[in-house]
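Design job #97: recover the sequence.
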C-alpha cells in the first residue's frame, strides 16, 4: 500500500483522521488504551477451511499451509475491507495506518526455557494466502536457526535489558514521551508488535484455549487476537438441524475508540464468511470479497 502524501498533523506511520465528536472527545477523556478495552469471543466453524487446507496441502511433505496462515490472511483481508479496524489512537488523536501489519510470537523451540522471537508481517496488496504462507514459513524458519536473538527488535530489547536500572527507567520515560508525539526513531519501532495493526497469539499451537489478552498503552496496536485449539462441537445449521463440526475459538481485545460495536460486529461477520468460503483467500487482498453485510 502506497502511503499518502504526509500532511500537517500526520505521523510517519499514520494519517490523522476526523471522527465524530464523541469518539474524538473519548481520546482525551479516556487517554489510555487499557481503559478502553472491549472483549469479543466467538466460536467459528472451520470445517470448510479444513477441507480447503487438505486440498492445498495435497501432495506436500513439507512447507504445509496451516490454519494459522489462513487466519492471518483472513485478518489482513478484513482490515483491508474494513479500514476503521486499521486505526489507532495516540497523543489524543485518531490515525489511520499507512499499511496493514500483523505480528505474532514464535517459539524458537517448544521448550520452557526456549526464547521467543517477535515476527512482523506487512502483506502486499497483491498477496494471496500462498504468498503469506510462504513468508511466514520462511520467517519462522529463519528465526529458529538460532537459540537467541540475532537482530531486529529482539536484539534491541536484549540491549535495553542489559542497561543499569536507573538508565533503563530513564530510557523508557524518553521512549514513552516520543511515542506520545509519534517521534520514536525507526530502529525502535520497526518490527515491534506494539506498532502492528493486529497482534496475534496462536495458542492452539501449544494446545491452549483462546484467552483475552490485554492491550498496551505503549505503541499503536489496537487489536489483540488469540486463536484457540481446533475441536469438535455441535452446531445449529441454517436449516435448523444440528451437526458435529470442526470449530476454533477466537478471542479478541479491541480499543473501543477506533470504531463502534456495530462496525466490530460486521467485521466479525466478514471473518466468519471467509471461513465459510475459504476460496476467497486465493484472491489478492486488494480484490473485494463481495460479502453482503445485510
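Job complete. Output follows.
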Amino acid at each position: 500500500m502506497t502511503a499518502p502524501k504526509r500532511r500537517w498533523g500526520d505521523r510517519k506511520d499514520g494519517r490523522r483522521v476526523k471522527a465524530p465528536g464523541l469518539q474524538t472527545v473519548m481520546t482525551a477523556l479516556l487517554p489510555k488504551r487499557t481503559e478502553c478495552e472491549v472483549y469479543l469471543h466467538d466460536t467459528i466453524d472451520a470445517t470448510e477451511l479444513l477441507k480447503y487446507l487438505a486440498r492445498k496441502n495435497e501432495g506436500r511433505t513439507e512447507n504445509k499451509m496451516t490454519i494459522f496462515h489462513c487466519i492471518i490472511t483472513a485478518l489482513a483481508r478484513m482490515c483491508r475491507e474494513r479500514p476503521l479496524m486499521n486505526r489507532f489512537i495516540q497523543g489524543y488523536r485518531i490515525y489511520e495506518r499507512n499499511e496493514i501489519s500483523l505480528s505474532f510470537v514464535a517459539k524458537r523451540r517448544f521448550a520452557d526455557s526456549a526464547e521467543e522471537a517477535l515476527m512482523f508481517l506487512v502483506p502486499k496488496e497483491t498477496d494471496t494466502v500462498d504468498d503469506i504462507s510462504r513468508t511466514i514459513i520462511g520467517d519462522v524458519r529463519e528465526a529458529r536457526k538460532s537459540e537467541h536473538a540475532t537482530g531486529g527488535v529482539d536484539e534491541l530489547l536484549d540491549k535495553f535489558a542489559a542497561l543499569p536500572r536507573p538508565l533503563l527507567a530513564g530510557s523508557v520515560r524518553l521512549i514513552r514521551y516520543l511515542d506520545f508525539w509519534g517521534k520514536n526513531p525507526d530502529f525502535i519501532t520497526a518490527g515491534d508488535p506494539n506498532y502492528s495493526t493486529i497482534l496475534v497469539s496462536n495458542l492452539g499451537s501449544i494446545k491452549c484455549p483462546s484467552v483475552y489478552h490485554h492491550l498496551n498503552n505503549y505503541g499503536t496496536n489496537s487489536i489483540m487476537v488469540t486463536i484457540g485449539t481446533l475441536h469438535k462441537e455441535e452446531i445449529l445449521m441454517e436449516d435448523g438441524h444440528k451437526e458435529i463440526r470442526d470449530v476454533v475459538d477466537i478471542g479478541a481485545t479491541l480499543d473501543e475508540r477506533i470504531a463502534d460495536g456495530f462496525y466490530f460486529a460486521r467485521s466479525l461477520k466478514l471473518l466468519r464468511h471467509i471461513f465459510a468460503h475459504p476460496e476467497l483467500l486465493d484472491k489478492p487482498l486488494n480484490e473485494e470479497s463481495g460479502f453482503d453485510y445485510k
